[in-house]
Amino acid sequence: MKLIDGKAIAAEVRSEVKLRAAAFEAASGKKPGLAVVLIGSDPASSVYVRNKINACEEAGIRSFCYRLPEDTAEEEAEELIGRLAASADVHGILVQLPLPAHLKEEKLLAKIPVSKDVDGFSAENIGRLARGERAAVACTPLGVMELLKRSGVDPSGKHAVVIGRSNIVGKPMALLLLNADATVTVCHSRTRGLAAICREADILVSAVGKPAFVTADMVKEGAVVIDVGINRTEGKIVGDVAFGEVAPKASLITPVPGGVGPMTVAMLLRNTMDAAERCL
Ligand code: GUN
């Protein structure tokens, strides 16, 4: 078993972005810019947003952070996105999810121009991804692909099993693996015979959000196991994978924390850099 060091790989990606950000600034006279909008006071979201802002700073990306109260009116949120959409200093716009219940995610996100959609959540970008065209892609699944690539895992011809079908992780993950020529199975809460399907996986990606969901009996000897879960239990952060029993069977496995998590932020910086360079 070998551990995939997400922290180290994320640092590599971030230092590559930093070089590109400096070159961008030399060419254009300004820094690449990312606007982050956080509405409400979800504690996990606050931590994620702070990490994103700090990572921008370190990479030479200018960040614009907007923290709005829980009861922000829809028109007010839309007006802010509209202003950011029009700003020449802002190359990427990220609206942190989940939104407060009274705000409609689809309606608000639709105000982000496709060219500034660094989360890859827009219908246009998901459509491009599905067609195998160049697209901005959601940061977490993109981070998983980068971990595989830099760990020497080529998905071509392999059976990849994705557990979870969210728009943010499961669906784009499946599309990315398919585009990389894997044979892809997507499992979810209604899947019958989940364990047997997972046992067929050469690459198993879990994005469920339940501690110890993936147990040793669900994993083939020598499989690559990617744990996307971030679960808080008794003040500790754990993934979806029962790491202690699964790790000995896996050829490669991501830890939590220190696996996929740091990659999400690194890929956000890279998506922002891509968006900025398209403006040159
Ligand atoms: N909430 C959890 N993950 C993400 C993400 O990747 N992007 C945004 N915007 N919100 C999230």
Protein model, in words:
- The structure is a single chain.
- It contains 10 helices and 11 strands.
- With 280 residues, it is of the alpha/beta class.
- The protein has 2 domains: 29-113, Leucine Dehydrogenase, chain A, domain 1 (Rossmann fold), CATH 3.40.50.10860; 139-261, Rossmann fold.
- It has a 6-stranded parallel sheet with strand order 1-11-8-7-5-6. A 3-stranded parallel sheet has the order 3-2-4, sandwiched between helices.
- The model has no long low-confidence stretch (mean pLDDT 98).
- Guanine (GUN) is lined by residues 94-97, 119, 139-140, 168, 264.
CATH architecture label of the largest domain: 3-Layer(aba) Sandwich
Inertia-based shape? globular
Bound molecules: guanine
Provide the number of structural domains: 2
CATH topology of the largest domain: Rossmann fold
Mean pLDDT: 98
Distance between the termini: 44 Å
Brief synopsis:
This protein is α/β, with parallel strands linked by helices and 280 residues long. The protein is built from ten helices and eleven strands. Helix 7 links the parallel strand 5 (159-163) and strand 6 (183-187).
What are the salient characteristics of this protein?
280 residues, alpha/beta, Rossmann fold, 3-stranded parallel β-sheet, 10 helices, 11 strands, 16% strand, binds guanine
Please specify the SSE layout and strand pairing.
Blueprint: E1 2-3, H1 6-28, E2 33-39, H2 43-59, E3 62-68, H3 74-86, E4 92-95, H4 105-109, H5 123-130, H6 139-150, E5 159-163, H7 170-179, E6 183-187, H8 194-199, E7 203-206, E8 224-227, E9 231-233, E10 236-238, H9 243-246, E11 252-253, H10 260-277
Parallel strand pairs: 1-11, 2-3, 2-4, 5-6, 5-7, 7-8, 8-11
Antiparallel strand pairs: 9-10
Helix pairs in contact: 1-10, 2-10, 6-7, 6-10
The site of guanine (GUN) has 9 residues, from strand 4 and helix 6.
